[in-house]
Structure formats: structure tokens, C-alpha cells
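Whiteboard transcription, Tuesday session. T.W. wrote the C-alpha cells on the left side:
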């Protein structure tokens, strides 16, 4: 399907009303008919368009509006490897995906579904679950885009870990197959059962290959719980200036902003905090009102987010009762030029709405606001038993297992907003679709290497500046 046919559509999501009464078998049959327009083998195509933009130009454009002093840190982090580069180059792949064939159905897409944007976190009920956990780029879009970015990240991760080509292909195929098979399961489930499905810690432990691996996972969860506790976080991030708690400056990664960078600093962000409070549910406002604002400092996070305005906020509910909130700037999704503009006027609200739709459970403090400079922000807890993958030392089998977990989470997220039976019908029950997307992932990994080399060359020639942080 041509790129223009994607861009011009509404940003709606889910099954059409006239299709809602069809049985799952009838909807799967309709999905199968989509192959007449876009055969599954075409999903394996990747050839750079003749008018493909210079990837370095796209990266430079994505820096517009970022804090200029932090942009070299962003590029320094991307300089570390082709895998690190891939993590920070969602804008490049969004442009590339827009030129690829799509079957038609749309979902609430993550927009940046690489391996490192999945992980564990605690639900409000204090259960640890596995899910997609970074949705800064979320937007309704073709379902294939997320899956192709995930599959390509598996191949690029395999190359980063120095696995052979056959192992990379096997891991990518296992990832796509897990998505296809899980979507087939969702296509026959009741809507509420799909909505309530969760990848619990117990399911993750079942996917582990041995008691040793299960023990390692359990230790990671215990450590994350300990590091999320107020007794651990408070002394690491806070010092007392007299009797007043204040976030410690640790430049260049944590520091207090100037009035120019954060216009609300002189008024303690009163209007922005009030707007954030209004975005919370009534019962959460009651909880939030128990806390008093104490301090805010810029905190550099991630790879792709570096240079955007991100901060950590300290609130106190009592002498030994801190609450840390992360404040992240929300900019237009990288998908917008190709999938259509968001229906939300505030990009923070766009992120939160997508998060609530795609995740099995969300942070109770999720909310959005507008800064005095007119920038959009969303807010969440800084740490809540957040667990990210540490790939170093993995073998190819473990990479494949993790890829399948990510694919299962992605399928569940897509099934909540899209028509699982329609998508499942298109993919079918054979390996034809798996092989096609696996082929795309391998070919796109080569494209990523070419783009990375162009990026390194631009740094060496002084076209862009990169600062490599000390270990």
C-alpha cells in the first residue's frame, strides 16, 4: 500500500462498526483477503527509496527544540555501536517504514518498539508484569511498523552480541512467529479476556530455560524492588540544605535548570502542577494532595530522549515520605508525518492515552501538563520496580526467548486497540509471514549499519558533535 494512503487516514483505531457483528472466523477470512492486495512475501521487501533522506539530516532535524548543550551527549551515546545508534534513530526508521507495504489494519502503535523499550515494572496492585514500557512515540498507525522495528532490533542485537547470521535470522523468525501465534490466540478470545491478559512474573519465569535463569530473574526483581524503595532512592538523589530537602546536582546528567530553561522555576511550577493535578483521576488527586512540592532538577535519560526536557521532581508527604516523579517533554511522534496527526492537542496526553491503551496496567500518577514555555509534558513515577534487559552475556537462545516475550507483549497491546482476527487472518498459520518479516529485519539491519557508518563519518568530519561520556 502506498505511503500517501497511510498518511491521509484518520487516526481512529479498532474494528469498524459494520464489522463488529462478524464472527472471528469471518473476520479472519477478511484478513486473508487482504493478501490479494498486499501478498505476505511483499512484507520482506526493503530497498531504500530513490528519494530517501540523508539519515544524518533527519537526526539533525530531530534535534530541533532540544537543549543544545545535551545534543552532543545524545550523539555520543548513539556513537557507541550500531545497536545504540538504532535505539536513537526512530525518526529515520519511521520515514523508511512509511515507504513499505502495509496490509491496511491500524492499531495504537508504540512507534519505537525495539527490544530495550520492553521490560518489567510494578502495577498499582504491586504485581510485577512484563510489557512495553516506553511509549513516547505512540500513535495510531499500521500494525506492521511496530513488528518490523522489533524484528530488526533482534537482528541488530544479535550482531551486537557477535552471533552468526543464522542465529540472528533464527531469533528474528522466532520473534515474528510468537507475535503471529499470540495474535491468533487473541483472535478467538473474548474482548474482556484480551483486555485482562497480562504477562506476569510467573509467565516470565516459565519462559526461562533453567532454575539458574529463574533464580537470576528473581534476583533482578528483588534488586529492582529494593532500588525503588524510598529508603534507597532518597539518600542517593537528595541532600538537605538546612531542613529543606533538595535534589543533588550531579552535572551534566542531573542539575537544576535556569529560569531560561525552565520559566516556572521562580514560581515553583505552580500553574504546571495545577494542570497536571487536573489530569489525574479524582481519587488519585486525593493522594497527590498529601504531597507538597519541594524541588525539581533536569535529569538526562535514555538515548533518543537526550536533549528533550526531562526532569525529576521531589514531593514530600511528611518527614520520611518522599515521592519522586519523572517529568518528560512530549514532542510530536516520529510517526506523525506518515500516519497522521494526533487527535490530542497536548502530546503529553497523547503519550498517556496510548500508554493506557497499550499497557496491561499503568502508573497511577500518569498525567500531563503544559510548561510556561508552552511545551508539553507527561508525568509518571521515577522508579517503580522498573527492570530493563541487560543483554551482555546472552546467548542466541536467550535472545530468542526475550524476543518472543517482547512479541507477545506487542501482540497483546495491538489486540487491545486493533482487530486481532483481521490481523491474524492476514498473517495466516504458515511461516510465510514470519519468513518475510525476518527477511526484512536482516535487510534493514544492513541499512542500519550503513546509516551508522554515515553517522560516524559525520562526527569525524565535524558535521555534528558527539561527546562520549566517561564509563
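and on the right, the sequence the group agreed on:
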Amino acid at each position: 500500500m502506498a505511503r500517501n494512503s497511510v498518511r491521509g487516514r484518520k487516526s481512529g483505531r479498532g474494528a469498524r462498526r459494520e464489522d463488529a457483528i462478524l464472527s472471528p472466523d469471518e473476520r479472519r477470512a477478511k484478513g486473508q483477503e487482504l493478501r490479494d492486495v498486499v501478498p505476505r512475501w511483499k512484507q520482506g521487501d526493503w530497498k531504500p527509496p530513490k528519494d530517501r533522506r540523508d539519515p544524518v539530516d533527519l537526526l539533525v532535524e530531530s534535534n530541533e527544540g532540544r537543549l543544545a548543550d545535551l545534543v552532543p551527549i545524545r550523539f555520543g551515546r548513539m556513537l557507541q555501536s550500531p545497536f545504540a545508534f538504532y535505539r536513537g534513530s526512530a525518526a529515520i526508521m519511521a520515514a523508511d517504514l512509511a515507504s513499505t507495504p502495509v496490509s491496511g489494519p491500524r492499531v495504537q502503535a508504540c512507534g519505537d518498539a525495539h527490544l530495550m523499550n520492553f521490560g518489567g515494572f510494578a502495577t498499582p496492585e504491586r504485581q510485577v508484569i512484563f510489557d512495553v514500557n516506553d511509549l513516547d512515540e505512540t500513535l495510531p498507525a499500521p500494525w506492521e511498523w511496530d513488528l518490523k522495528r522489533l524484528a530488526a532490533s533482534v537482528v541488530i542485537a544479535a550482531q551486537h552480541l557477535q552471533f552468526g547470521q543464522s542465529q540472528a535470522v533464527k531469533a528474528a523468525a522466532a520473534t515474528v512467529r510468537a507475535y503471529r501465534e499470540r495474535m491468533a490466540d487473541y483472535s478467538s478470545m473474548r474482548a474482556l479476556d484480551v483486555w485482562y491478559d497480562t504477562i506476569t512474573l510467573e509467565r516470565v519465569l516459565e519462559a526461562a530455560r533453567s532454575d539458574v535463569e529463574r533464580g537470576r530473574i528473581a534476583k533482578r526483581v528483588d534488586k529492582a524492588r529494593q532500588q525503588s524503595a524510598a529508603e534507597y532512592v532518597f539518600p542517593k538523589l537528595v541532600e538537605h540544605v538546612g531542613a529543606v530537602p533538595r535534589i543533588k546536582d550531579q552535572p551534566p546528567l542531573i542539575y537544576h535548570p535556569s529560569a531560561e530553561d525552565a520559566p516556572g522555576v521562580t514560581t515553583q511550577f505552580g500553574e504546571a502542577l495545577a494542570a497536571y493535578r487536573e489530569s489525574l483521576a479524582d481519587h488519585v488527586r486525593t493522594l497527590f494532595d498529601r504531597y507538597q512540592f519541594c524541588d525539581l532538577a533536569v535529569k538526562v535519560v535514555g538515548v533518543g530522549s537526550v536533549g528533550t526536557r526531562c526532569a525529576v521532581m521531589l514531593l514530600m508527604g511528611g518527614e520520611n515520605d518522599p515521592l519522586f516523579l519523572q517529568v518528560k517533554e512530549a514532542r510530536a511522534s516520529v510517526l506523525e508525518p506518515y500516519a497522521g496527526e494526533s487527535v490530542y492537542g497536548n502530546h503529553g496526553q497523547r503519550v498517556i492515552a496510548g500508554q493506557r491503551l497499550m499497557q496491561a496496567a499503568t502508573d497511577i500518577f500518569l498525567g500531563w501538563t503544559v510548561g510556561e514555555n508552552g511545551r508539553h509534558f507527561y508525568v509518571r513515577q521515577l522508579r517503580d520496580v522498573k527492570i530493563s534487559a541487560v543483554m551482555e552475556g546472552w546467548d542466541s537462545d536467550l535472545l530468542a526467548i526475550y524476543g518472543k516475550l517482547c512479541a507477545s507483549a506487542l501482540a497483546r497491546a495491538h489486540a487491545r486497540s486493533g482487530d486481532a482476527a483481521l490481523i491474524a487472518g492476514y498473517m495466516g498459520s504458515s511461516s510465510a509471514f514470519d519468513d518475510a518479516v525476518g527477511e526484512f529485519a536482516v535487510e534493514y539491519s544492513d541499512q542500519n549499519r550503513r546509516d551508522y557508518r554515515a553517522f560516524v563519518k559525520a562526527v569525524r568530519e565535524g558535521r555534528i558533535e558527539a561527546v562520549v561520556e566517561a564509563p
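Someone added at the bottom: Residues 30 and 411 are 19 Å apart (CA to CA).
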